[in-house]
Amino acid sequence: MSFSGKYQLESQEGFVEFMKAVGLPDDLIEKGKDIKSVSEIEQKGDHFKVVITTGPKVLTNIFTIGRESEFETLTGEKVKAVVNKEGNKLKVVLNKVTSVTEMVDENTLVNILTLGSLVYKSISKRVA
């Protein structure tokens, strides 16, 4: 199943607590909690381009499965990491945050971020 497509955030759990824990400023958390972010994913084989637009903030990460790439984190920090693919799941560890993105079906993208015991879960639906 290809990840390619455009997805809009439909629901999320644990946003405020998780973003506080990763060090996002309170004003950005307050602005971001009600914004329906849009994720655009281009997949060509093992090569991915992911663009996430949350209001005025645009986060772009380009990577190839199994190869070290540079990522911009939620706080704007640049880190190097390797994304691995397991079935319909993409897994990466950025600093202490583990990210698992799964194509649940052809129209639903679920992302789970874990930091210690804190979990942030978002569900996005295909819009294009």
Task: Describe the model.
Strands 4-3-2-1-11-10-9-8-7 form a 9-stranded antiparallel beta sheet. A two-stranded antiparallel ribbon has the order 5-6. The mean pLDDT is 94. The chain is mainly β and 128 residues long. It has one domain: Calycin beta-barrel core domain (Lipocalin), CATH 2.40.128.20. It has helices at residues 15-22, 26-32, and strands at residues 5-13, 38-44, 47-54, 57-64, 68-72, 78-82, 84-86, 89-94, 97-105, 108-115, 118-126. It is 12% helix and 60% strand.
Poorly predicted spans = none
Task: Tell me the total number of β-strands.
Answer: 11
Rg result: 14 Å
Q: Provide mean pLDDT, rounded.
A: 94
Count of domains: 1
The CATH class turns out to be Mainly Beta
Helical amount: 10-25%
Question: Would you summarize the structure shown here?
Answer:
By secondary structure, the protein is mainly beta.
Question: What attributes does this structure have?
Answer:
128 residues, mainly beta, Lipocalin, 9-stranded antiparallel β-sheet, 2 helices, 12% helix, Fatty acid binding 1, cytoplasm, lipid binding, Calycin, transport
Helix and strand topology:
Blueprint (H helix, E strand, L loop, with lengths): L4 E9 L1 H8 L3 H7 L5 E7 L2 E8 L2 E8 L3 E5 L5 E5 L1 E3 L2 E6 L2 E9 L2 E8 L2 E9 L2
Antiparallel strand pairs: 1-2, 1-11, 2-3, 3-4, 5-6, 7-8, 8-9, 9-10, 10-11
